[in-house]
Amino acid sequence: MGSSGTSTYLVERSLNGSVWTQIASTSASQTYFTDSGLSPNTWYQYRIKASNAGGVSSPSSTSLAATLSRLAEWRLQNYGTTSSTGAASNTASGIDGIPNLTKYAFNMQSSDGTMHVQPGTGDRGLPTTGMNPITQRLRVEFIRRKSSSAPGVSYAVEFSSSLNNFAAAGAPVQIISIDANLERVVWEDDVSINETPARFARIKIIESP
Is the pTM of this model over 0.85? Predict the structure, then answer.
């Protein structure tokens, strides 16, 4: 229930409790506000001021709210929980054997199963590896969560001539933005198949705080 005599409510938000920004003005009959477009895994502070023709009131007491991390949001959407335990844990997998952290990193749903991203199209799926017929070098293409979206994971592409001695790849040869959170990336091996009888590629997914 709103305060008697109020015509509008002014909603203010702060990250540090010192600098406040008005983010909304609602009618006296609307005693709620949904904030959107916030950063993941971040604490926000909120306060309300009442306003009418006579002026603006002092601010209300401060309320704290924290947004979910991207990974916790993925768990909630796929398993109905933000807890990283049981079937929703990072290492848990279904009958397809693909760990949850891997599916999250490549923008897959828990129910997607074994599916690979198609070269040049699509926005989710396991990495696709193939040979560049012109350079005769191994190419790896996958969907990556942008670091600017605070995904909580990083990616390390590695190549090797054996299954034991992988080395970090250089810079990607192609990065195509899909939206604010996702991008398509392509890496190409520095060694051609003409220089060695076999080449292997892998991508390490590293969870970050």
Answer: no
